[in-house]
Amino acid sequence: MTATATATAKTTAYTYSFKEGDGKNKKLLGGKGANLCEMTQIGINVPPGFVISTEACLNYLETKNQELPAELMDQVHDQIKTLEQDTGKGFGDADNMLLLSVRSGSALSMPGMMDTILNLGLNKATLPGLIKQTGNERFAWDSYRRFIQLFGKVALGIGDEEFDKPFNAIKKREGITEDTDLSAELFREISDIFLDVVRSETGKAFPEDVYQQLQLSVKAVFQSWLGKRAIDYRREFKITADMANGTAVNIQTMVFGNMGDDCATGVGFTRNPGTGENVMFGEFLINAQGEDVVAGIRTPKPVHELTNEMPQMYKELVSLRDRLENHYKEVQDYEYTIENGVLFCLQTRDGKMNATSRVRTSLEMSNEGLITRNQALLRINPEELEQLLHPLLDPESKQAPIAHGLPASPGASSGYIVFDADRAELARDAGEKVILVREETKPEDIHGFFAAEGVLTSRGGKTSHAAVVARSMGKPCVAGAEGIDVDVEKHTAKIGDTVLHEGDVITIDGANGNVYLGEIDTVPPKFSDELRTLLGWADEVATLKIMSNADTMDAAAKASDYGAMGIGLCRTERMFNAQDRLPLVIDMILAKDKVERQAALDRLRPIQRGDFKDLFKIMSPRPVTIRLLDPPIHEFLPNEKQLEQEIEHLKCLRDTVNGVNDLMNTMQLLKRQADVKELPKPFAPGGRELVDSAIAKKQQMLLKVRELFEVNPMLGHRGVRLGITYPEIYEMQIRAILEAAAECNKDGFDVCPEIMVPQVCTGKELLWVREIVDQVHADIEAQYKIKLKFKFGSMIEVVRACMRAGRLAEIAEFFSFGTNDLTQSTFSFSREDAENKFLPLYEENNILQDNPFETLDVKGVGRLMEIAVDWGRKTKPDLKVGICGEQGGHPESIRFCNHIGLTYVSCSAPRVPIARLAAAQAKLTEKDYTLE
Ligand code: ADP
Ligand code: MG
Ligand code: MG
Predict the structure, then answer these.
(1) Residues acting as catalytic residues
(2) Percent of the chain with pLDDT over 70
């Protein structure tokens, strides 16, 4: 224990030396602080320092007048004393000064969200000391002017442009473009100007007292937690107080990457975060400090060039990278500085990467033995896999790129050019797709990233702000496209002789760095072998099976490619809606009697049979669950208003047709009178009859629509109720299903149809349909002379069905929870009305945490499901139970489904990969699952 901890044992400890802080306690020390402690303690060369805890921040933010906790500055004093002892330097001591960096860092990394102050401790008195100590006047003045600007910006709230303007003016006056060409004399002049800027902007002189500097900085870091940027970021990424609350402050001895050519600063990833490849990855700048690499002010060099420039340092860097990965067992994103040939690590954190690279690194780290397969599965957020299903630029496109930059974040996108983040937001709100084009991006551009489809910068490298943020959001980014000359003020970008304006369309490809004029076609993505392998591991671990909802061949093919283990829901009404079937369906509905209806059904059956055969074959030998007709049949007819209007129009047309006929008759008379030689062609003969029969048909439809009218169709004549009132409809569908199965069998396909009845409330309803099924089944076995296997089951989507699950399980071999309807009936909300009228307000005010139609309401609907599973399995222990509502593809809902022992979840095809991974994670973490 240090002196601090002992002295303040009675009061709260707000500060922790890197040597003692608990590297696991990110909530208290922030991610950066905890890792600085951890690295220090495992022997990595970290400049000494200490952490001020998030607790101190929260206390500060709670005080009315924003005061630092009373004991804090005392503890800071003690820590600095220790630092002085450890380094043999003095804070504010002109002869041998200790300079500090003040860095923020909360529990979750929020890149570029809060500002860092470097070189703290410089003032007029200590500056000569620095010059003497380093023998490098230029370096000292450079450090000084950086400090004034950073401190001015962060602690005193002065805008960067106030400093940038005079700075650029001097460069211009001297005809200098590179900062490295500025002399000591010029830096001195700049420092003086900067001090004036501070005086005129704040009305006070720049603080000379080093402890005052420190105290103001700590406050500023605390305050930044409530800054707009930070709040926006937390909102966008749904970071709750639970996950990160307040920021810690890290106070650390400065090391200098800008003291000469044996110095450098750089950032690296232990693997390539764009592709996942296991290679050294990163960028550095010789003779530079701090943010120079990330800010994109100078374009940094790729790390492998360090092999020539500083071969020994490169070796040490490789070994640093290996140590970091071996210790953290995770891809690391690290920052380092080389000071006169000595390598210091300044930061490490878990690397943010896109889905491609997350999948690849999971696979490879597990194959390398760094992590287990289970860990490999757990380190991927299932939702991220959606990125892999994004389209790619059509490789057939012959268009030549107009510019080329660094492939900073893969994916392709097109949109209108905008040159600033605010415009991007406006355009997005107006429904436009935009590409944000900047010279470089800064943290304050964050809202532009949210709004844009992709980001293009003309400066900066693969670890620039733009690249890092775009990657973390999975958005395409091309960085450092130096051929582009961006003029933000004029809102133009020049490429050679071409001038692009705001509103021009471009396409960027973040996978290869190409920039194209106009919009380029895209093609669907390829499902990588790595993902296939990984999801294969997931399937081995998971108990839940993943099925897909699919009604078309396209959807089934996609589902199959994505690894669906069958079709969990095929909605037959979707098949009815196709152009060539709807007239038949309408005939069936309009039928005056059973005979007419049967005639229409006889024409529909072969069509349905064909559809089912296709689905069975593509999924063979996996099960295909077909739901018998569910919606009220008037949904297949136009609505009343529309029909009335059409009839009106037809009646007008009849008048016109009559008029034309009358004209024809009159023409005969006219002709005799002389002048008219050529008669116009008469209106198509029979036109009148055609119109009359059209009117009759529409009137018949109108009558039917009126007859079928229901006050509340959702609770009306639908589902199994239809099957009972029109048994011939269900019979046709059942026959089509079983005939299709029989024919597939004959063709050598092993198929497994499952017939599912919707909207069941009572056992009797189910029995009624079961009898038809058994009858048809017997018919078909006799007709085809084969044994046909199939399953018969019930949707569970009304509350009574849950309560009667034990009885229903006597008749059904499987249950499938239709959680859309079950949610409606449990809440007594109609979905459309709820989502349009009051649900948003409910969510906003936390009356309901989530929209229950998107995230399964585990506490209410879930409870019913649990009971139904329980009672159902009491009757039939091997009862197969699944869920086919929309929520079935959401990782959180999947955890719950795993928890209550469902057999499968069924979701839309594009969510199948997500669900497969989520099911494995649900299994791996099931012990920790709690329902409060
Ligand atoms: P961020 O949260 O934006 O990554 P950091 O706290 O890491 O901010 O600081 C930004 C940069 O400042 C670092 O990348 C590093 O280059 C520089 N820096 C921070 N602390 C020190 C230090 N003690 N010595 C030298 N450079 C430092
Ligand atoms: Mg920063
Ligand atoms: Mg950093």
Answers:
(1) 465, 884
(2) 96
